[in-house]
């Protein structure tokens, strides 16, 4: 038993060093391509006449096509393997990001955001599913915190990088066009490295010894047998869609995404109101809340691992997010910025603390499409928040109502999370209808 435990620990350590850094880099590049339009809002308005409402709608349309193609993409990932499918996703989203440089008005802006969402669909839940196949249950929470730090790091890096790229002019292209081209091509180049570095299954990993492979595969199969004991047969997708737990997971993640993307797409605009700042300076200020959130993510992940009550920790950070977002709508631009720095502690930590809950509940045999479903429905918050904020700003000149609504949604999610189960129901108690 001792030898098996040592082999398992060795395998987990190797996986964290071999896979996690790559996933973090992938997520950084991915997230920059998704949210970099936040830095070019004024340029799109000046060069193409795209106003606040059109900008908000276009920013959000990404998440509509993302939601539509998310589940099919993850089903194809299971068929073709993580290595091939994640490489394909990176190439297509990179090319779509480059295409953003050539939009000519509202219609082409909408179309390219839809194309980008469809191209990227499947990446995030694909990585989440990858963890369920490579890491034991008690290791996934911290792995998710490390992986999700990529989005926070992307927000830190994207400001200075995008701000610097916006200063480029030449060859008949504006700075915002060069930004899209260079950041999009970075994804395409990285995809080549992913193809040579990533393995689809533990048995394919030549960097693991046979003993490490055996211990890891045995541990994950043991977890699956425990799930089998809680389910008479493999649950069908239809039965899980009727499971109230899945609805709860979607509602919680929808609320988290609302707050994250409401802040992400409008934070540069709030910073610009603080004074006469150039693009690079706006980018530097934009990095501050995300630097704070990285520390918070690791701190709360460590606390949740030590004092085990995942739902309570998620509720705690959601209330922090609610307080910050409400305060952001009550003062000056500088005060709003400080309040969002506080809110970032909550909404980024909530994102990483949430995923171990559905990971623990779901049957591994159907986890990939259901995780994709939760992510796609939840990420529709990325459509609702910017579209609503854009509409409110164009009609009222203020986003205060939107910030208050985000605070209310976070409080509601903090209550709902206590109804979420982190482990499968025991035989005879499952909330999902039984298949016979």
Automatic annotation (TrEMBL):
Keyword Transcription: no
GO cellular component: membrane
Occurrences of domain Major facilitator superfamily (MFS) profile (ranges): 19-425
Keyword list, A-Z: Membrane, Transmembrane, Transmembrane helix, Transport
Transmembrane segments: 15-32, 52-73, 85-103, 109-131, 143-166, 178-198, 246-267, 287-305, 312-329, 335-355, 367-392, 398-420
GO MF assignments: transmembrane transporter activity
Pfam families, A to Z: MFS_1
InterPro entries: MFS, MFS_dom, MFS_trans_sf
PANTHER family (UniProt xref): PERMEASE-RELATED, TRANSPORTER, PUTATIVE (AFU_ORTHOLOGUE AFUA_6G08340)-RELATED
Identification of the protein by name: Major facilitator transporter
Taxonomic source organism: Caballeronia concitans
Organism taxonomic ancestry: Bacteria, Pseudomonadati, Pseudomonadota, Betaproteobacteria, Burkholderiales
